[in-house]
């Protein structure tokens, strides 16, 4: 057998091997991102609530957002982190920290406040 024929056969076998592996692996489905609207809908039942998103928020695994509640003159800020639930292949969020009387700088966040049942983007 000539060298060139051997190389062609080896190359074809290699391509077939990689194609068969690709077909055998199940397709990985990425979970749906958590949009700002999805997050805000979860907190619509709260009174005097604001939700703050960093400017680079995408709603992906590892992203964070803040929920600010105003109760009887006090401000309470909860820090939430988005994580991927491997069992359900779904993105969820959990509270990571809780602060009292902390205000976030509006210049670093997009802050939405619930006013009369509608979310309004607060300006700086």
Protein model, in words:
With 124 residues, this protein is of the alpha+beta class. The protein has a domain at 36-121. The protein is 23% helix and 39% strand. The chain has helices at residues 3-24, 36-42, and strands at residues 49-54, 64-71, 74-85, 90-100, 109-115, 118-121. It has a 6-stranded antiparallel sheet, covered by helices on one side. A hairpin with a 4-residue loop joins strand 3 (74-85) and strand 4 (90-100). The longest helix is centred in the N-terminal third of the chain and has 22 residues, at 3-24. The model has no long low-confidence stretch (mean pLDDT 87).
| Through-space gap between termini | 76 Å
Count of individual helical segments: 2
Low-confidence stretches: none
**What structural class should be given to the helix and strand makeup?**
alpha+beta
% residues in beta strands? 35-45%
Helix share of residues? 10-25%
Strand order of the largest sheet: 4-3-2-1-5-6
Average pLDDT, rounded to a whole number, is: 87
User: How do the helices and strands follow one another from N- to C-terminus?
Assistant: HHEEEEEE
Radius of gyration: 24 Å
Summary keywords:
rod-shaped; alpha+beta; 124 residues; 39% strand
Task: Please give the structural blueprint.
Elements: H1 3-24, H2 36-42, E1 49-54, E2 64-71, E3 74-85, E4 90-100, E5 109-115, E6 118-121
Antiparallel strand pairs: 1-2, 1-5, 2-3, 3-4, 5-6
